[in-house]
Amino acid sequence: MRKRTAFAGLVLAITLTACSGSSAASYADSAVVRAQEGLSAVGTLHQIIVAHTEGRLFPTFATAAVDDALATATKALDELDSQPPTSPETQQLYDELHPRLQDAVARATEAQEALEAADTGRIAAVDGELVRVSDQLTAFVESHA
Fold this sequence. Notes:
This protein is mainly alpha-helical. Helices cover 90% and strands 0% of the residues.
């Protein structure tokens, strides 16, 4: 009887270890998807700003596209927040990605405000920040994909 109990305990320990490993891998996959969503949003905003500064964008299209990009960045952050970390490994991923997505949302908001105000100085400044955030999200994706 003791051998069965010990064996059952060993099987349970192995199963739990395997599940937590796959849970960490699943969390990493989800974090990469959230980072890609944020990257898509800031990349889209950068392209909108480029087209806007070259006079190739209708204002109504720009407004709708900026709103969509901001919604995408916000959704990525909200979805990351809705999936709390469950282990030290997932906490590390969260701690690495969360501020980058917060930055993406903040820069997207700044881009929206600068474009609405038609403030060329602010538009140029936020574009540089969008490129910086894009580089950070790209590095996250490349290191965790």
